[in-house]
Amino acid sequence: MESSTSEWIDLIDPSTQDVIGKVPISTAEEREEAVKSCDSAFKMWSQVPIQKRANVMHNLERLIRDNTEELARNITLEQGKTLPDARGDVFRGLEVVQHCCSINSLMMGETAGNLAADLDTYSYRQPLGVTAGITPFNFPAMIPLWMFPVATVCGNTMLMKPSEQDPGAAMMLAKLAKEAGLPDGVLNIIHGTHDAVNFICDAPEIKAVSFVGGNAAGEHIFARATANGKRVQSNMGAKNHACILPDADRAATIDALVGAAFGAAGQRCMALSVAVFVGDAKEWIPEIAAKAAELKVGSGFDDDVDVGPLISVAAKERVESLIQSGVDEGAKLLVDGRDVSVDPKVKKGNFVGPTVMTDMNTDMTAYKEEIFGPVLNCLVVDTMDEAIEIINNCPYGNGTAIFTQSGAAARHFQHHIDVGQVGINVPIPVPLPMFSFTGSRASIRGDLNFYGKAGIHFFTQWKTVTAKWALEDNEHFGTVMPTMN
Ligand code: NAD
User: Who contacts 123 (Cβ-Cβ below 8 Å, separation ≥6)?
Assistant: First the structure.
């Protein structure tokens, strides 16, 4: 529906600063209407047979495939990442939709028969009701697709609030979901910022909140929504370390580090933003710096560009000030991405080029903060156990990766590291959706992870039935606690 709001947020192309649209801040009445619409649709949608809900996901999968290019172009325009990376954003979300097509087996429950005479017990999963999703700017398609397909295929309805900085892909996906057969009211989108988020945390109709974004918002949402009795999954910030052993495949490791540190301008929650070089592996740093300096920075629409803009002027200023803080605190810049040169047609964009910082320690602000830009912090240690200690002492625990040719070293690392996602010679180990996207420590709040089995569990609750069907002589339980002997 057209919003009747008088408050709009400019939607800005991060490569040019052109205003490419306006995002309405949904009014209080519109928010209320959206949640009521989800609430009344739940009564109908939760009764739709599971196979029919799966069919909607099959249709949605095809429609997303058919519209990948349009979605990707919108992401590049609003978010700035390169077109191939934007296609990846869509594709990684599409995988979750594919997984949702198997909901009839994913939602199966448990049964135990003949627990007493003529008595069986069975548990099955039921939807919760109205659920909500709040998403960040950095994966405008993938993260909405972590949420609404899983929620709705389980029989819930969902109210989404996409990032106000690039809500276009979520809107396009909602349109495709409608075309795929999702009835009106099952998915509603509201726009806005803090007020919309607080509305979601407080609305009594909403039973569960799925959040992905930074720690300030995530902690706030977790506290406020759980205080209101809601179930919350909150995936938050990161500072992901790579541990590089000297026996690793040098060329493949350097390639992986450069891609994972600077790809998407470092605006991935799984970006490798710290490289911990063990022993002689430190000799590789100059080659990494040389490769970083070769990356081309510019508009995500240009074929030869590797690194697009940061999302906003504020994000650029923040990243540049964190680079400066490193310099002020004694770090050395092997490559300085500030004042990077770009094609004159995008000279106003929020560009920061790949930046490589060495001579660092873990007390520096630039190490402690999640920079969320194309900046690689380099640390040097003597042993793998020192690297493990550093990684486990960092408050964040989203992702990590070890590069080595030794299975024994990789196994030791994997067992002793307290991080949600571990890559072994894999730089950005985002799991396929038969697994879950996990996390540890300050990167996560809540017990049920996104997608995979845990995702289904998040959006459902158990119902357990104990049934007695006797052909003759029904038992009289009397006033004592029934036992099953
Ligand atoms: P953000 O926290 O600024 O915004 C996320 C959402 O929360 C947006 O919809 C925004 O409108 C809302 N919001 C922001 N501040 C708020 C506040 N104080 N109160 C209430 N609502 C608020 O995050 P972002 O900048 O859009 O995204 C980048 C962050 O997301 C990074 O920290 C990144 O690591 C994290 N992230 C984490 C994962 C993960 O799975 N762990 C995945 C992607 C991104």
Answer: 109, 110, 111, 462, 463, 464, 465
Reported as a single tens digit per residue, the pLDDT across 88-143 is 999 999 999 999 999 999 999 999 999 999 999 999 999 999 999 999 999 999 99
Share of the chain above pLDDT 70, in %: 100
Dist. CA 232 → ligand 1 center (Å): 15
Q: What is the mean pLDDT of residues 314-335?
A: 98
Side-by-side strand order, sheet with 355-358? 332-335, 355-358, 375-381, 272-278, 240-244, 399-403, 421-424
| Helix, strand and coil percent figures for the chain, each rounded to 5 | 40, 20, 35
- Closest-CA residue to 174 (of 164, 193, 165, 161): 161
pLDDT at residue 485 tops 70: no
Residue 74: which region, alpha, beta or left (left: phi > 0; alpha: psi -120 to 50)? alpha
Reading the block at residue 391, the tokens are 């990684």
For residue 242, the cross-strand partners are 275, 401
Report the residue among 25, 159, 269, 444 best suited for mutation to probe ligand 1: largest number of ligand atoms under 8 A from its CB.
269
Distance CA 360, CA 338 (A): 19
Q: Which two tokens stand for residue 215?
A: 């720690």
Structure tokens at 363: 């007390």
Is the pLDDT score of 484 beyond 80? no
Mutate to test the pocket of ligand 1, among 194, 201, 440 (most ligand atoms within 8 A of CB): 194
Residue 134 Cα to ligand 1 middle (Å): 8
pLDDT for 475: 80
Answer whether residue 193 shows pLDDT above 80. yes
pLDDT at residue 477 above 90?
no
The rounded mean pLDDT for the chain is 97
Per-residue burial over 335-357, b if 16 or more Cβ lie within 10 Å, else e, is bbbeebebeeebebbbbbbbbbb
Dist. CA 444–CA 266, nearest whole Å: 20
pLDDT bucket at 483, cuts 50 / 70 / 90: confident
Whose structure tokens read 């040098």?
250
Residues 6+ apart with CB under 8 A from 182: 56, 60, 152
Active-site pick, 38, 269, 378, 394: 269
3 in contact with ligand 1, CB cutoff 6 A:
no
Query: Ligand 1 pocket, 138 CB below 6 A?
Result: yes
Coil, strand or helix at 258: helix
